[in-house]
Amino acid sequence: MSHEVFNWQINRKMTYWYPEHRPRRQFAGVFDINKCIACQTCSLACKTTWTSGKGQELMFWNSVETKPWGSYPTGWDVKALSLLGPQKWGADEYVGATVFEAAPKGERVLQYQPEDMDWCNVNLGEDECSGMIEKGAYLKIPHAVWFFYLQRICNHCTYPACLAACPRGAIYKRPEDGVVLIDQKNCNGHRECMKACPYKRIFFNVVTGTSEKCIACYPSLESGKSNRCFETCIGKIRLQGWINTPEKAQEDNPVDFLVHIRKVALPLYPQFGTEPNIYYIPPKQADPVFLRQMFGPGVDKAIATYKNAKDDPELLGLLLLQGSSDRIIERFKVKDGTAIGYTAKGAEIVRVPLKEPLYVRPYKDVALDVFRHNVT
Amino acid sequence: MQRKIIFPILTVLLLLWYCTPEASAQKKEVKILPEKIVSKFQSGVLQLTDPTSSLWLNLPANTVKLIPQDVQEPKLAQPAITSLKVRSVNNGTWIAFHIEWEDATEDFNLRADRYSDGVAVEFPLNPKQPPDHRMGSEKEPIHLLLWKASQQKAKEGTSFLALNYPNRWSDYSPYELPGSAVSPARAADIKNLLPAVALGNPIVPGTAPVVEEIYAETWNKVLVQEDQDAKGKGTWKDGRWYVVIARPLFTPDPQDAPLDGGSSYVSFACWDGVKANQGPRKMVTEGWLALEIGK
Ligand code: SF4
Ligand code: SF4
Fold first, then answer.
1. Does the first or last residue of chain A, that is N or C, have fewer Cβ atoms within 10 Å of its Cβ?
2. What is the CATH T-level fold of the domain A3-225+275-281, as seen in this structure?
3. CATH assignment of B28-157+209-293?
4. ipTM
């Protein structure tokens, strides 16, 4: 069965297995690729919290891969993109086919069967740059030879391919927060979801015989706290919140501000058509052609806006609020050189200055009658 | 006058709706094939433990043709196992089906890219009026007996973790190291780390019976039954599967198809693991075969 739904990321109607049914609010995240140091703290925070059980040895619901060569599971993006064929953007919309529209007869989603070995090399291609560094090369932006880190969790898509593909109806999207879950009681281990997810964020557990995936740390989400991978991020690259559709965007909602107002954060491979809800601030040093394929035609503008953050106090303030609290910042304000994060009800969570205060102590401590020397 | 106009309009609208994908998906197709399976009466205990026994192989067999499942997505694109040899006996309280087919590979392993061989015997809950034979239809359920090679292997003690990853390391495995007994508290912790196990998902390898009884009322309503009475065993030998599936002719379970009336219908489905057959990607009979239960 196919239904007509609207996908704002490709700015057009498309077909989907079920009718359009958006949750009351949608969990979303913004990852600033520019700030990631690939420390993998996020990957391990997730691993120790959720996937330390038997049969989960090869599972990383959160992983960080080096682009252009790295991938986990191996080759997931290259395989999905070549299967989909040329992906063309028109002036205002995506004119190519989505994974739903390109599904062959008898299938619900365009898909492929990954190999078990694909999950065996979690950090394949780490820190490998795009090419050889020529003699005489010098630093310029974008870099002549580049790499960047891509942080990945399940996108808790608005139109999940995994959910569409499950013949048992064992995958559901929670109406209260849009989190996509596999019902572990009813999953029959068919792995249709694993084949269908173009981002390959479904994992098979050989001990339980069921498929498993990122659960968006829903117990902490329900109590207003950030997910493990957001909370523990060393580089403070992650911002968690709720996203509205563009026509309902609210300027003081951090995710809406970055995605809809400043348009500095973009979805990964929007052309797949699943309307993924993790958004990325593209890396300014990488090849724009590569980035356009990944994040769509908005890349150049997003990078220009990002580079201008120093003259955009609201954007700068919000970027500084990223990773500043373990609570979910649902509203924000920038005032008098300070960015302030609030709960949905307006209670202050955190405030950060736009400029780090600088204190200069006098050379002589009069009270103690000593000079302040650095004697080490 | 008004009535005369409204009635044809309604008829046209109804016809139009009938042609929509939704309506055609709901259209049930009941097909009764000319073949008949006769379950021979045989007093005494039925041979359920050795499917390669000559007690079975000397019985007359029906050849049952299979076609790819092609009504519900995901469909089976390429044909796999195209025919089964079926034999049946009953002893007045139990009925057993012996199913034999050619399969060059024995597929029982489970991991991301491995699928299991399997076979299913299906009956309508209402023996007088069978529904669509593939998964029943709303309020017209079917009763499925599913045998899977993976479940049998797991029941026999195969660990798919050890089989596929003999050198794995699990951080919490020290609690299970030989010589250090697992305390009940620790056992509960270990179980909770396996959500499907903690929730009692009947699919978990090693916990499900070798032959699983399923109740289905359309493709979206497939339930593993609470009462599991079926038995069975499969043996793969020289490129052929020999599987016996048995059940009581009558049980008080309202989800079981009654077979004590002497006749009903039966259909079959088969999965070839090496061809990634799984779930709806299966070979099925084209319709129901009449089932005559000898007394
Ligand atoms: S990223 Fe994949 S697993 Fe996650 S919701 Fe989307 S389709 Fe499903
Ligand atoms: S914890 Fe943050 S900085 Fe470290 S790898 Fe993960 S996303 Fe990057």
1. C
2. Alpha-Beta Plaits (3.30.70)
3. 2.60.40.1190
4. 0.91
